[in-house]
Specification:
It is a single chain. With about 170 residues, the chain is mainly alpha-helical. The chain has one domain (about 35-174): Tetracycline Repressor, domain 2 (Orthogonal Bundle). It has helices at about 1-5, 15-20, 35-55, 65-80, 80-90, 95-125, 130-145, 145-150, 160-174. The longest helix has 27 residues, at about 95-125. The mean pLDDT is about 90.
């Protein structure tokens, strides 16, 4: 993960990976078939971990509470995994079409959770959104962008940043 995040998938060789993980030349093939499999496994692990962690969150009653919980969860989860987030967005183009379809489906399921929250809120009259899918994708893009601008202990605390982002998300749907 570190090599892919630092140099990019295309620039990393299997020999570099072997050196990074500390195995002899050729030994890595005992654990994986190729570099594409490694990349796919990183993507899949990130998406499965994301959904598992989201599903473990305590349930919220109102659509507003569910939306706030989703926003705060997304920020915390992604800030704890900057390399995985970087790879998950920058290296999609390097997946084979078959692997891309698998990851895209996992992403759609995660996005679907937010879309369902927005639909419930819209149907209850709590949210005013023209299109729940577009809104869900925009919110996720904004929340994930935290990784490019936030550094712990620099200017604002995580709680302050979460509050600012939650305010922006709330205003986007009301």
């Amino acid at each position: 993960m570190t090599l892919f995040a630092r140099h990019g998938y295309a620039a990393v060789s299997m020999r570099q990976i072997e050196g990074e993980v500390g195995v002899q030349a050729g030994a890595l093939y005992n654990y994986t078939t190729d570099k594409q499999s490694l990349l796919f496994d990183l993507f899949k692990r990130h998406m499965v971990d994301l959904r598992t962690a989201l599903d473990a969150q305590p349930p919220s009653a109102s659509p507003q509470d569910r939306l706030e919980a989703f926003a705060r969860f997304h920020i915390r989860f992604h800030l704890e995994r900057p390399q995985a987030v970087f790879i998950s967005y920058m290296e999609l183009r390097n997946l084979t079409p078959e692997n891309f379809r698998v990851i895209e489906e996992l992403r759609r399921r995660y996005e679907g959770v937010l879309e369902a929250i927005l639909e419930t809120g819209r149907d209850a009259g709590a949210f005013h959104v023209a299109d729940t899918r577009v809104t869900a994708l925009a919110i996720i893009a904004m929340l994930t962008g935290i990784n490019t601008c936030y550094r712990s202990g620099v200017r604002l605390s995580l709680a302050e940043v979460e509050a600012i982002y939650w305010d922006m998300v709330r205003k986007a749907v009301t």
